[in-house]
Design a protein that fits this description.
The structure is a single chain. By secondary structure, the protein is mostly helical. It has 2 domains: 3-137, no CATH class; 144-328, no CATH class. Helices cover 68% and strands 5% of the residues. Strand 1 (201-204), helix 9 (219-222) and strand 2 (237-242) form a beta-alpha-beta unit. Helix 1 crosses helix 2 (28-34), helix 3 (38-54) packs antiparallel against helix 4 (57-88) and helix 8 crosses helix 10 (243-276). 31% of the residues are buried.
Length: 331
């Protein structure tokens, strides 16, 4: 059975449903953004990243770029729309800043609509989706044993890349986008792959009790639907991950996400100030913290907190011990 193809088809079907509904509207891009089209796109991009490394590199890498283009476009809408809505409730925030962010949000929506038309995602014959399905159906898919072993190796390699990235920087972060955001992006894929693999990855209860897990096992983390693995169905082999360490990963992603958003708020205000006045970057930055409010952390504080979180997390060897191994249904 071609499990890799089945996984793609599952999320392609989800995406197609959204495209069919949005194609009947005047503003399909806005509807797709509001109806979480980003989720199946993340899953498809994750599968493409993985299988482009496992096999069919040239063919699947090109498919990955199609999904990434859409996902990035929705992400840009989300960035400006989220801050525009947040700042609109802040009476101290100049109306010009809110107006700029709203205008940027509209511009990004327009851009996504153009991509949808240009790349033929919304054509009546589902031209782009059908081309992708055809390429995937002609790909060389491995049997379950080879596929599971390849996934295990890919996941391990992905973990090692994360560790190499942060060790190379000696746990020192100097930039929100290049360091904090990039590190979080890398570990976030480690949580996306298991969901995208539709049951091939399962969580195994951790052996023994480690007191440092307590801070990670919050109700929000342990009850999150993103931390419940899809049913294995008729798969006979699957990759086992340590449950508590996977929860710890989820916790770190969430905490770094809060810090990242705090940092991006600074960037959003600064950008709006520069575009709406003659202020240069330095002058704009001097005004940012007054506008952001008394509770706004500085970039230095954000990066310092992120460094401490990452250091403590890595000191516990959570990533190195995340993979338990490959198991069979009988086990």
């Amino acid at each position: 059975m071609k499990y890799g193809l089945i996984r793609f088809e599952y999320f392609l079907d989800k995406l197609e449903e959204l495209f069919v509904k949005s194609s009947k509207l005047k503003n399909p891009a806005l509807w797709l953004y509001k109806n979480n089209a980003r989720n199946p796109l993340f899953m498809l991009e994750g599968l493409a990243k993985m299988y482009a490394e496992i096999h069919n590199n040239k063919k699947i890498s090109k498919i990955k770029e199609y999904f990434k283009l859409l996902e990035d476009a929705i992400g840009e809408i989300d960035y400006y729309d989220t801050f525009a809505k947040e700042f609109a409730t802040n009476k101290k925030m100049p109306a010009a800043i809110v107006s700029y962010l709203k205008a940027q949000s509209r511009e990004k929506i327009k851009s996504l609509n153009e991509i949808l038309i240009e790349k033929k995602w919304l054509s009546e014959d589902n031209n782009r989706l059908e081309k992708i399905r055809k390429k995937l159906s002609n790909a060389d898919w491995e049997n379950e044993k080879k596929d599971t072993n390849s996934i295990n190796q890919f996941y391990l390699t992905s973990i090692n890349k994360v560790l190499e990235f942060i060790n190379k920087k000696n746990f020192t972060l100097s930039n929100i986008e290049r360091d904090l955001h990039e590190f979080r992006r890398m570990i976030r894929w480690l949580s996306i792959y298991p969901q995208a693999l539709r049951g091939c990855v399962q969580l195994s209860k951790s052996r023994g009790k480690n007191p440092y897990f307590t801070k990670y096992l919050t109700k929000k983390i342990t009850t999150s639907p993103y931390n419940v693995m899809p049913d294995a169905n008729n798969q006979q082999l699957f990759l086992l991950l340590d449950q508590n360490r996977f929860y710890a990963l989820s916790w770190l992603i969430a905490e770094l996400g809060n810090l990242k958003d705090c940092g991006l708020k600074i960037e959003a205000i600064k950008e709006a100030l520069i575009q709406n006045s003659a202020a240069d970057e330095q002058n704009a930055l001097s005004k940012v913290y007054k506008l952001a409010g008394a509770n706004q952390k500085t970039t230095e504080q954000i990066l310092s907190e992120a460094e401490n979180l990452i250091k403590n997390y890595c000191k516990e060897k959570n990533l190195e011990l995340l993979i338990i191994g490959i198991a069979t249904v009988k086990e």
